[in-house]
Design a protein that fits this description.
Blueprint (H helix, E strand, L loop, with lengths): L1 H25 L8 H4 L11 H12 L3 H9 L5 H27 L5 H9 L1 H34 L3 H17 L6 H25 L22 H5 L8 H10 L8 H26 L3 H5 L4 H48 L6 H18 L4 H29 L5 H20 L13 H27 L8
């Protein structure tokens, strides 16, 4: 219990202290007109209060990510607390804040355009494809899972629920941001926060038997903590999907001083939710072995919610496993539309133009809905963290080009490079088959060494390029 409470306090202090430090490094300027003011179009660019922008950003990046990911990560035991706290404060929140503010300074540009500006045209072209593919995977994941759950609850066919959700997604993708998203997201965002506070309060009041922090692998499968935990718990620590979402709110902030509240603050809030659900999963069933036998993440969430909060908890659990993923899926498609439009310099004011971009996206999305869910999810996890890694390297270059303290982005970029490289080499869906018949532990060690080499190579390339940089002033 002490570790759990201490971890929550650490996240709050991270926002107050390190978040303020990162804000100072970036150098906000409240006198500058924001894109929402200069480029207002009544569709994607429009001013919002920081509270509304925070709740939309929070739900955009959260959904069920910090719930399901934390429940799965809880199988490794309290080592999950360590990753959530350090990952959220020093990697995820820095990533979200820097990418959000970099986008704001570039008229709300999408992540691919930001990467291209800082890492070159080749990287931009790769990221345009990579980010749209990731957003499609996110959208499809969050069509399939709620449609299956609704089928189980109502008995209505999976295909009908797919159609209903897709029609809603299309409306949320092409209509002005305040028509649907601006109205319902703050409500769902508050509901998600209330759900987390209720579960967290229940754990404290009942003095739940939450294990204390120890870097011990408790996973019944024996799968190593590193790098698997860092891929499994993404949304509660660091997630590349957030880099695709932050530009939406960068187009809506009234002033640069709202950036830390909206971008860094939403990520810290998500980390707190991940901590709560990881703690609940570790303690509610009596231990890690019992958690492993409890069922899918959706089943675990439902049992915990009803067990701690009763009927109210059951209603909130339904909201969590159905409504929240839908609110991540619709913004995924909206972000994909904006990314493609940015790359083509295709104005999105006329609604016909929005449909021209959106329709092909939805055709591809519908086709992907008939690929097995587990296949989509596995590749989404790695692609998600790889995008975060590339975005961090872009942030490193952005800060260096302006003579700012780039170490705040460089250290997490180096770490995440080791994570994604070693994972794709050692994980079952990666290149493990090329290692022959070696023991999996040997393969993991080899993969980590290769990951370190790749990370050091990227770092060396950065320092070599940095010597030739002419500083930019803004």
């Amino acid at each position: 219990m002490y570790s759990f409470i201490g971890s929550i306090i650490a996240l709050v202090l991270g926002y107050l202290i390190y978040g303020k430090f990162v804000e100072g490094v970036f150098g906000i300027d409240s006198s500058k007109a924001t894109p929402a003011e200069r480029l207002a179009d009544g569709v994607d660019y429009m001013e919002m209060s920081w509270t509304k922008a925070f709740l939309i950003q929070f739900l955009n990046i959260a959904g069920t990510g910090p719930i399901f990911g934390a429940v799965a990560g809880a199988l490794w035991g309290p080592a999950a607390f360590i990753w959530i706290v350090f990952g959220c404060i020093f990697a995820g929140s820095v990533h979200d804040f820097l990418l959000g503010m970099m986008s704001l300074r570039r008229d709300g540009a999408s992540v691919s355009e930001i990467v291209g500006e800082n890492l070159g045209n080749g990287a931009k072209q790769i990221m345009r494809v990579f980010s749209v593919v990731l957003l499609l995977l996110v959208g499809v994941v969050f069509i399939m899972s709620p449609a299956q759950i609704l089928k189980d609850i109502t008995g209505i066919s999976y295909e009908i629920w797919l159609a209903v959700i897709i029609i809603y997604y299309l409306c949320a993708t092409v209509l002005p941001i305040d028509a649907i998203i601006g109205k319902i997201y703050p409500i769902f965002g508050l509901s998600l926060l209330v759900m987390a506070v209720g579960i967290g309060g229940g754990l404290i009041i009942t003095n739940a038997n939450i294990p204390e922090i120890a870097f011990v692998n408790m996973n019944p499968t024996g799968r190593s903590i590193f790098p698997y935990l860092c891929i499994t718990i993404a949304c509660g620590a660091i997630s590349g999907f957030h880099a695709t979402q932050s530009p939406m709110m960068a187009r809506c902030l009234r002033t640069e001083k709202d950036g830390r509240k909206v971008f860094y603050g939403a990520m810290i809030s998500e980390g707190i939710i991940a901590l709560i659900w990881a703690a609940a999963a570790m303690s509610f069933f009596g231990g890690i072995p019992q958690l492993a036998e409890a069922g899918t993440a959706a089943v675990v969430v439902n049992k915990i919610s009803v067990g701690i909060l009763g009927k109210v908890g059951g209603a909130l659990a339904l909201l969590g496993v159905v409504a929240c993923p839908i609110t991540s899926g619709d913004t995924a498609f909206r972000s994909a539309r904006l990314t493609i439009a940015d790359s083509l310099k295709y104005k999105q004011g006329p609604i016909v133009n929005r449909f021209v971009v959106a329709i092909p996206l939805f055709v591809l999305g519908i086709a992907l809905c008939f690929i097995p869910f587990n296949v989509i999810w596995r590749y989404f996890g790695w692609a998600n963290q790889t995008l975060a890694t590339i975005a961090l390297w872009a942030a490193v270059k952005y800060l260096a080009n302006r003579g700012k303290n780039f170490w705040i982005a460089l250290i997490p970029a180096m770490f995440m490079t080791v994570v994604v490289t070693s994972y794709i080499l050692a994980a079952p869906e990666g290149f493990v088959r090329f290692f022959g018949d070696k023991d999996i532990k040997v393969i993991e060690h080899i993969a980590i060494v290769i990951g370190c080499v790749v990370s050091l190579g990227c770092t060396a390339a950065f320092f070599m390029s940095n010597k030739k940089t002419n500083l930019i002033t803004e």
